[in-house]
Batch of 2 targets.
Target 1
Amino acid sequence: MISKSKIFIVMAALNEEKNISKTLSDLKKAGYRNIIVVDDGSKDRTYELAKAQNVHVLRHVILRGQGAALRTGIEYALSLGADIIVTFDADGQHRTGDLPAMLKPVIDGEVDVTLGSRFLKKTEVPFLRKVLLKGSVWTMYLFYGAKLTDAHNGFRAMSRKAAQKIKITADQMGHASQIVEEIHKKKIKFKEISVTILYTEETLVHGHGSFREALKILFRMIYDRIVR
Amino acid sequence: MTPLQIFLIIFLLFALSRVFLRAKGKQISKKEFIFWAVIWILAIVFVLEPDLFRISADLLGIGRTVDVIIYFGLAVLFYLNFRLYVKMQKNEEDISKLVRTFAFKKAKEGKKVKKK
């Protein structure tokens, strides 16, 4: 049985001064003590506020993208001896209450990775976002043959073994597809878990669903196919 | 020889000399040296013997002679653009690595200070 002391929550944060304190205190209230925040060169008080919550805070001196920040956090968690690593959004999109369901299959050794999905049960997802998300689900299927219901959900839990195997080299949003690709290529056992995404006006504005971002990811996937 | 030919030859010889100098100074790899040397030497040969354009156009089945230059130029540009992209991607990854190492170092230092 793995105790909560070996579970590490990794969070990439960019200009999240409005949400970071609440996200962190919610997690701490739920008993998750090992939290690693990677401040990706924020221009606001994200770093100071996270520090004040008495969690591990790492800082990228310049913006490197969410993928790079998560990799920093995951590597740091591994260096601190994490048994399970959870990636969690700093903006309050994810619910602390979904954590036990995400963790259980990994703790029990049923799978090595759980991926949060907002599409396993009926949830209200804004139409445009749904089109983009489903588009990337199909792309993922075409490219990697990975059958998923949700492709770009930042909520994941992985065993130490899986975290060591998954190599994130995509610095920007492309990391989400890359993680799926790695899971698929390295035959890591995974499972999707139904989670609730809390959409607020703010998460919609700076969310990951922009069309431009999607095109960039697609280009990167094609490029990787040619070069690597 | 026309004035244009003389001008082009001077320019191409200058470009070629740069390639040699940079290879001597080890600023470019052997592969790069060969690539650029071949490009510039070919260009010099074609400028000295413009008939070669017509011959290669006929050989390739390209109607207009000048199109040979355009197609070739486009191919080279695409290739160089791709190479630049690869290089840029590599640079980006290196920068991330640097930033990560720095973040790690600072976090570990911070921990040590706290323990004291």
Note: Chain A has a mean pLDDT of 85.
Target 2
Amino acid sequence: MIDTVIRPRLSAMEAAWVIARRDFVAVLFSRAFLFFLLGPLFPVIVGGLAGSIGGEVQREAVSYEVGVAMSAEDTARMVAAGERLAPQLPFALPRLTPVPQAAADPVFDARAFMEARQGNYAAILTGTPQFPKLVGTEGQIARWQGPVGLIAGHTLAAEPAAFPAVSADLVATSAADERTTRIQTAQIAQMLLFLLTMLLAGMVLSNLVEEKANKIIEILAAAIPMDAVFLGKLFAMLAVSFVGIAVWGTAGFVLFGGAGEVITRVTGFDIANLPAPAVGWPLFVLLGILYFAMAYLLLGALFLTIGSMASSVREVQTLSMPVTMLQLMVFFLAAYTINQPGSGMEMAAIAFPLSSPFAMLARAAMEPQLWTHALALGWQALAVVGIVKAGSLLFRKRVMKSGGAGREKRAKGLRTPA
Amino acid sequence: MDMAVSDHMAAGNDRPDIQGARFSAVPADGRPLAIEARGLVKSFDGTRAVDGVDISVPEGAIYGILGPNGAGKTTTLRMLLGIIDPDAGVRRVFGHDRPHDIGRLIGYLPEERGLYPSMKCIEAIAFMGALRGLPLKEGRKRAVALLERHGLAHAADRQIRQLSKGMAQTVQLLGTLVHEPRLVVLDEPFSGLDAINQGKLEMMIRALADDGVTVIFSTHVIHHAERLCEGVAIIAGGKVPYAGSVEAARDRIPAQVRLETRAREGAWLAALPPETRRNGDFFHFPLPESGIEPLLKGLIEGEAGILSLSIERAGLHDAFVAIAGEAAARQLAADSEETGA
């Protein structure tokens, strides 16, 4: 009667696999899945609206800092003139800052400095107040040439009648310019990540309702640990999400292949010219997939826990609104920190597990370091395990009405040897 | 009293242990215990649902947990299976205090039947096996065989939602057994079944026990327990006032004498014991310790005119009344009528 070849129990991962396989097949082969695939129409509209907000953030993210690499005396005079004028022309004038490297180096090469992408200056001002010279990218020079001439004029006379012409020295790129353009990539990636998680993670909310309504939960709870049930359900929905993303991605690729020019003309946005992320495109895409998985598992684990407390579909529907708000808050936190690299706020967004994938994906677009991603992914995986454990424990306590005596005894070492 | 090694009476019952019974850590017949529970306590929202339950079930036994609805049967089973943890007490299944560690050896049919409505029968059975570690492919193969054996081969590819209630229950039971467990736990398995299916289920339970499988089931129908079980735990109000063999439970009540006489009055009435109850033309009383001969002599000499006299061994129902009390017995009867079981 007993098959001794089969082990007496499934491991947690094997048990999770049994659940995941069932859920994945059940969802994929349901009629509702077709409607699910049509879902992105809505976020595309929302995305378009949200894009304008993103543009606003990007405009604010433009660097106002122009480094001054003149003689010490001229530098001080230029900075002082800039400060005098600033209250009258807020946002119109650059903030002039002495370049410390220039002060320490008598043969300071501003062009080489910019090309080495050092500092975070929009441009570097060299020469003298009479003959100022801006070193920077074309866009930055076009923006700051006039205001710098104005400051130079005020440096020479309190009420100048003539303003020195500012000559230009163009460089292909600079750290500030790259940062400014990469913000666009970071924003688009973050927005995409947000839309996908918003679209897909919400499904998890109602995932245990079927089991509870059909009393299947008793059979599952008797056979395997509850955290394996949670984990299995999460991974099943993640796999379903990847199927959806693959379908949508293919559709999008085909659409751009056929009507890319029209789309670019209509939207005024050419995706082919999107600035390359700091870590490079292949790694960025890989990190995007990993951070999506993490964002999905983190939010999904939380939603699964919240949903498991609901006793009916109606309750789940009631919960969906605050849950969407939570997603939005997490997204806004990460989006807000895009133009504040290294700030306490960005660190908080990275440390807080739910916003961490969003903040780190933006970081991948802006900063080339890789070790931070390994650390963040590890931390996020740990948080997923933590939320799943806590969620399943809560479910056992609140829904299954299980006490904790067994665990307490085990913790005290009173476990009976098998 | 060492509850671990004794056929026990629960706390609060001062009757001595029943000597020679089979329910002990080392039962008289040498069988090891499939289930051992001592002092299980479980409260919900401040209400004690199970209060110090002790049960010992030897391997290969058919064991019943008998009690009215709300007595704590399901909670006890859920604790034994590890679905919920007890607030206090110890449970061991095949020597393990974490039933999930030996999930492969256990099959469980909950009271509230549950299956995924969109699943095909064959897949539902295989899935339940997979939960217990049976490879899906093997599960499907066994599911086909089981469905054929139980006359449901035609429904193998039907979705659960397309089945009748009885068929769905059978499918779930097959799912409980597909991985060939050594312990089968059935919570109110007879409820909702018609007489024919109840009979089939009884046969299945006996067949399992014949194969050496331990079967433990809860019921509020005494007849099922009496017909099937070699051991029972009587549970009422969360307590188990008796756990032991059915025979021993019945032996606790003296045999009952049923007497019918022609005479209504007379000196012979003095021969009847004081506990005698009259019910129409019949007198009921426990068999006197002195035996039947002195009683017969008194009746004959007193010219009772005996029409019939029978000595009946007490049934499990009488034992239940004596152990759990009249109120619990009344509720048990009401529950049975309500469910039609």
Note: The CA atoms of residues 68 and 332 of chain B lie 4 Å apart.
